[in-house]
Amino acid sequence: MSNSILVMGYDVERYMSPEDRMASLQGVKKIIALHRKYHAPFTFFILGKLLEYDDYVAELKKELALAGNLADIQQHTYSHPLIKNNERYMREKNRKPISLSEIDTEIQKANQIIEHKLGVKVFGLKTPIGFFKGLQGEPAVLDILKKNGLRFVSSDLVGKGDHPPALLEEEGKPREHYLHENGLSEVPTHGWHDTHILLKNISPYNGVKEACAYYREELVKAHGKGMMYAPNLHPFIYSDKDHDPTASIVETFLSFAKEHKIPVMSYAGYVEQVQRKTT
């Protein structure tokens, strides 16, 4: 269907140890190779702290040069804090949301280090963790994002009660782009995150084969409804020693889009297209 769109984005976030950073980089390389193979745009939502490591930055820049115009760079905050109540996550991790002033600092620091290290002025954010209905009802947080030059946010990443998965439809409405009260665009994601399936084992699916089958079924449903679909993916899952070392999940998405002639977009490309249609 003509309205079907696949929006591809990855949260680049593992920084805690050299092994974590290597896993992140290995996944980044495989993702870029597949997107080059399919000539498919994508977004990396980069955690600011990762860019404090110059050896990582040097390798990342080499890979981004290979990706060329296919790659879109946006931010994932500076240090991966919780910026709104998520009751499920708060119970599991014993963590609380940071203050408004701390949110402001997180966004500023991520903007600054991405521009300084990669030469990119970002205008979008994927929030850590995610929330049911995203940042709706949080005008002060949304205003901080807008004040810092952001034009879109992806925060609506889970289902009711802040539990995954994020269904294709919620309360009888398709999970698609919408505007927050201050004009910021929201790009929600869909389904179980790859980490839910392969790392945390909290989904009904086990292993890469079942994950690929699940995602293909999701794509069939979304395509049948003429919807956009945006999976929630993480490069470290595709490292050499991790859960999907051949990046079969990534290829499942890209091959399905090619097979069904579905446009693949970065988040920036998708938001710009939506904004053109609504102005």
Word description of this protein:
- With 279 residues, the protein is an alpha/beta fold.
- Helix content is 42%, strand content 15%.
- The protein contains nine helices and twelve strands.
- The chain has helices spanning 18-38, 54-67, 87-93, 100-118, 139-147, 194-198, 207-225, 248-259, 267-278, and strands at 5-7, 9-12, 42-46, 71-75, 124-131, 152-156, 169-170, 173-174, 178-179, 185-186, 228-229, 264-265.
- The strands form four sheets. The chain has a four-stranded mixed beta sheet, with helices on one face.
- Helix 4 runs parallel beside helix 5.
Question: What can be said about this structure in brief?
Answer:
The protein contains 9 helices and 12 strands. By secondary structure, it is an alpha/beta fold.
Number of strands: 12
How helix-rich are the residues, as a percent range?
40-55%
On the 0 to 100 scale, the average pLDDT is 96
The number of helices is 9
Radius of gyration: 17 Å
Oligomer: single chain
Q: Assess the beta-strand content as a share of residues.
A: 15-25%
Shape: globular
SSE string: EEHEHEHHEHEEEEEHHEHEH
Largest sheet: 4 strands, mixed
| Spatial sequence of strands, sheet with the most strands | 5-6-10-9
Features:
single chain, four-stranded mixed sheet, three-stranded parallel sheet, 279 residues, alpha/beta, 9 helices, 15% strand, 12 strands
